[in-house]
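Appendix B. Extra example for self-study. Work through it before the problem class; the solution is given directly after the inputs so you can check yourself.
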Amino acid sequence: MRILEMGRGKLIIKFIMKDKVRILTYEKRKKGLIKKAQEFSILCGVETCVILYAPKSEETPAELEIWPPDHAKVMHACHRQIQREAIVRTQKEML
Amino acid sequence: MRILEMGRGKLIIKFIMKDKVRILTYEKRKKGLIKKAQEFSILCGVETCVILYAPKSEETPAELEIWPPDHAKVMHACHRQIQREAIVRTQKEML
DNA sequence: TCCACTATGCTTAGTGA
DNA sequence: ATCACTAAGCATAGTGG
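Solution. Structure tokens for the complete assembly:
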């Protein structure tokens, strides 16, 4: 344990170039983000969805991650979103 | 400033009954959640979407909030999600 | 590789302006 | 009614096993 190097310093938000570090950060922060979404959903009584596209590395293809695990809820949210977009589009076309 | 009551205690994740407190928490945590999603997206180079349905109070109807503000990106994510669900459904039906 | 640890920095509940 | 402040609690980068 090296006491002098325990600090982290202020984190700069910038794409992490090193594959291994990025994948590790991805796993950690994905967990944190979903936890936050879940807490938010419960505390405020709000339907919440998180959709992630995760190109993990050069070898593995893009991977999809969604929350909540109940896909039906996400589908519902997606459909509502698409309906809403369609309505907005129609309204614009009518101008 | 009452020093003795400055503490918060451990937060219990449970629906906030008081309308005003819930709305305040909603606004604060929505901001936090979106910031996290944005950081995550940049750090890991990952497409990320957050969709919230916000029934703010008895008076106001359900309100939709999405991130990123570029709806086209969210639409793209939604469509990919729906396509994926359709593929999964088809695969199940073929069994 | 993946999980555990922990000091640091970040988020936010409670509060006051 | 917002908005700002701040300490407590939380998330997590770096590290070790």
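Self-check: Chain B has a mean pLDDT of 80. If your reasoning did not lead you there, revisit section 3.
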